[in-house]
Amino acid sequence: MTDDAALRVPPTHEITIVPPPEHEGRHALLQQCIQVRIAVFVTEQGFPLEVEIDEHDPTATHWLLRLLPSLKPIGTIRAHKVESAGSSYYKLARLVVLKEYRHYKFGGDLVLALHNWVKDNARNSGMIDFVKIVCHSQAVRADSAGAIAFYRKFGYEEEGDLFDEDGEPHQKMVARLSLVE
Question: Do 95 and 110 meet the contact criterion of CB atoms below 8 Å apart?
Fold first, then answer.
C-alpha cells in the first residue's frame, strides 16, 4: 500500500447515538459532541460561542463519531423534528468532523446514519410515503468551498436564496427521502 493509499483507509471508528435526555449517560456524550463543535465552528471557523449551543441541544438526537479503541471524539451531527402548520420535517444541523479527519469522508457516514434514523423515526410516527429533511448549509467561505455540493451528493436540493446565519452566507437545502422499501 502506498502512503497515499494508507491516508485514505479510515481509522477504526464508531458512530454512536447519544442516549435520550432521561438517560444517565447522555450528559458526558453530549459534552463530547459540543466540544467537537466548538473546535470546528468556534476555534477553526470563528463563529461566536454564544450561538453554538442553542435551545435544541438538550432535546435533539445527537450522533458522535469516535475513534476506536481510544474513544477520541472526532465528529458529530444532530437532528430534531419540527412540527409546523399540520406538517413536519426533520432538521439536520451541526455536522462537523475535525479537520485532520475530513479526508476520510466521515461526514457522509454521519449524514447516512442520520438519514437511517430519520426514516425509522418517521415510519414509527406513521409517515408512509416520504420524509423531509432540511438543513442550512454553509455557502462559500474564504477558507472553503462551502458544503452545498456535499449535501447535493445525498439528495439535498437548494430551496430559496442565500441568507445570513450567524454572520455567514447559508443556503436552505431540502431532501425528501422515500419511506417505501
Answer: yes
135-156 burial code (b ≥16 CB/10 A, e <16): bbbbbeeeeeebbbebbeebeb
The C-alpha cell at 86 is 399540520
Query: What b/e sequence results for 65-94 when a residue is b if at least 16 CB atoms lie within 10 Å of its CB, and e otherwise?
Result: bbbeeeeebbbbbbbebeeeeeeebbbbbb
Contact of 163 with 169, CB cutoff 8 Å:
yes
| pLDDT at 3 exceeding the cut of 70 | no
- Is the pLDDT assigned to residue 132 strictly greater than 70? yes
Structural element, H or E, at residue 63: strand 61-67
Contact 151, 137 (CB under 8 A): yes
Give the model's pLDDT for residue 145: 56
pLDDT in tens, 22-35: 999 999 999 999 99
Q: What's the Cα-to-Cα distance from 81 to each of 59, 60, 131, 147, rounded to whole Å?
A: 10, 8, 11, 22
Taking the C-alpha atoms of residue 105 and residue 168, their distance in angstroms, rounded to an integer, is 24
**Best CA proximity match to 136, nearest among 91, 176, 105:** 91
Cell of 1: 500500500
